[in-house]
């Protein structure tokens, strides 16, 4: 009996290892495609490879965020930033894009475990451009951090999902902090390039 169980366990282990090996590449490719699509949805039109040019930057809260610079014909047009915050049921991961005028271009929810029909509404709730009290699209982040009305801000929280709304806006604010650092770096690099060209 012991020998039979050992053989069965070994066979199952080998089978699982093979299945894992076969599915690893398609899963990785699907994740890469999802990432590329998310970046394309949240920044102005670009013709570089933001993923290949991505880098980490530390925001105000000390969190390291991934920044994906979007350029068109070597001119920076915006930044897509991967950010996260703890919501009601776990971590919320988003991709948010900013143009060079400090404005939110768009966002995409990458992952969450919020309550269906409640917190899960964040995917559309904060894109409702017909409601200025909901939408963050086009918001000038240089005017101040985003907050729900319960916390003194001007954003309507998702009905019955204030915790999720706070977490979502916190992730946006963290992303903007990273954006500010990236924008400053890009302007510094551009200035350095101009000065170098003038010296030649």
Concise structural overview:
The model is unreliable at 190-198 (pLDDT under 50). The protein has one domain (41-199).
* Percent of residues in helices: 40-55%
* Number of structural units classed as domains: 1
Q: How large is the count of helical segments? A: 3
Mean pLDDT: 86
The spatial strand order of the largest sheet comes to 1-2-3-4-5
Using DSSP, what is the number of strands? 5
The proportion of residues in beta strands is: 15-25%
Distance between the terminal alpha carbons, to the nearest Å?
83 Å
Taken in chain order, the helices and strands follow as HEEEEEHH
Task: Identify the overall geometry.
Answer: globular
> What's the main sheet like?
5 strands, antiparallel
| Alpha-carbon Rg, integer | 21 Å
Q: Which regions are unreliable across 5 or more consecutive residues at pLDDT < 50?
A: 190-198
What structural category do the secondary elements indicate? alpha+beta
